[in-house]
Amino acid sequence: MSIEQLRDKQGLTETEFLQQYDVRVFERPSVTVDMLIFTIVDEEKENYRRLPEKSLKLLLIKRGGHPYLGQWALPGGFVAKNESVDEAALRELKTETNIDEVYMEQLYTWGDVTRDPRTRVISCSYMALADSISLEVKAGDDADDASWFNVKYSVLEEKKTLVEKNFTFEKTVKITLSNDKDVLEATVKVIEKYAGKAIMTEREVLDSKGIAFDHAKIIQYAMERLRNKMEYTDIAFHLMPELFTLSELQRVYEIALDKEMLSSAFRRKVAGMVTETNQFTKDAGHRPAKLFRFNPHWRYS
Known about the structure:
Layout: H1 14-20, E1 30-42, E2 54-63, E3 72-73, E4 76-78, H2 85-97, E5 103-110, E6 121-131, E7 143-163, E8 166-178, E9 183-195, E10 198-209, H3 215-232, H4 246-257, H5 263-270, E11 274-280, E12 290-294
Parallel strand pairs: 1-6
Antiparallel strand pairs: 1-2, 1-4, 2-3, 2-7, 5-6, 7-8, 8-9, 9-10, 11-12
């Protein structure tokens, strides 16, 4: 018997079942995508003899309508009926920020019942990494402005509680986002509950200043993922131009991870990931430095 001939307990084939299926039986929530777009930018320098300071930046959109009018949010939007969530993410990335052809990965799906005051909204978040040199950002039609914000991420408190064989790990994180005009702040509590082999993670926004929806929670998670993946993958190279010095690469790692690294240890860490070129920097006031490029074959060597 073919699969088309199989009948369910009501005696219906799949074709018959689909013909009489009522989509109104279950209330359908809306689905959105939210984009976390990170880049590393050279700040303006007063002394041309010093290498420019770098900073990790996140792109935010100033909301031009309700809800959260005038507050800053992650770029994103609703998924259309005729597109996948990946297609929606790519579309929103291009239409709201004028960015495409960059590294992007799906992070997490957010489904708290009350996360959006308009209606029940489930959101798939995506992280994108881009070299700042290639970016030409613009705000979409439903936004008042688009701006890069400096990201500061710090752990305020950590606590571990043991109950019999199970334990709970709590940490409180402060996120500060700033540009030339605005300073946004949020405090997020992360609770990890370990029971045998099961792990449950909860996130709660304790306070938020100027950040719309639950986006402080999403930013916290993205920072956690970015830092973790930089430790064991080559994701950092998506923040780099085609040619770079090892000092520049090390500084990108240090900015994103928020820690200093020994040059010798760092160079051993990335030795297989880079290929030396015969080109040098030509910055005025600095000794020429060897330029490198990413080695995409390092995983297979």
